[in-house]
Request: fold
Amino acid sequence: MASIARPMLLRQAAAASRLSAAPAGPSLLLKNSARVAAFHATSRRNILPPLPQKVEGGVNDPVPVPPPSPSHGSYHWTFERLVGASLVPLTLTPFAAGSLNPAMDAVLMGLIVIHSHLGLQNIIIDYLPKKRTPKSRKAAMWGLNVATALVALGLYEFETTDVGVTEAIKRVWHA
Amino acid sequence: MIAQRLGTTALRRVTAAPQNAFFTVATQKLTEEDARAMLDAQRLKRPVAPHLEIYDKKQTYFGGSIWQRFTGMGFTGLLYGYSLAYLAAPLVGWHLESASLVAAFGALPVAIKAAAKFVVAWPLVFHAINGVRHVAYDMAWGFNKATIIKSGWYIWGASIVASLGLLLL
Reply:
């Protein structure tokens, strides 16, 4: 650690003195940042590049509060929990009963598709903030909608022409 | 450590001592617009906020929380991948019906079958148990740091044991 840290500190100090030795001081900011850099104990590591950003408004503007919308807020949240919680008994049933009848199998798979869709939406919302990447966000959301629709169609095909998902998993498991 | 400490202290003295000739702090008059422009330029250099490296690995989110997302996404990837492939199969000429899957899986060696079953069973059990814990959190049950850590360990243990049990089904 020491052998790594020392040359780094020395380099920073050397850079700082070189900066300050320049006759016409270029900018106060640069000089001060070199001074501050010597105090930082951790190095800068950028794993991901920062997303594009722009400054809007003043420094002391309050954070904008979005208009209240229960269907995007509490109703959505409760719906997500209800879907998740209802999957618990539906997942346990085939273990107890041996399999599911086609109707219950379709219900289970429908709920799993909704649950997956909501989970993927959450991930898109987390990693593609609307404020910084509005276009990628929109593209990802619509791409997800198309993918989910196709997945639902594929599952409908599987449920109607094949043996059903729980039964298929059971057969593969015992293969 | 002492040598490093000495070096650091010396460097700090050199770089930070107010009487140091290299750095003379000078103030300058700025118009309001210039000050704002400087601040804007500085704000645009802010680091990435959810920075992976700054997370403390000993905190609770590595116990269960992030694994909920990993396991969930594993299954979602499997479901989306299989359903889309099943939809495309007649056009491309693949055989993904349950009968061919059963035949293909049955032809594998026992060890590989067991490993594949565990790889599927563990995330399912983990996601299910941990999902119940998350619903409990939403009702403010067990949301205490010591309890979170303890229940996290129980969930890891229970999910491994249960998924090994599923192999015997």
User: Anything to note?
Assistant: The two ends of chain B are 57 Å apart (CA to CA). The mean pLDDT of chain B is 84.
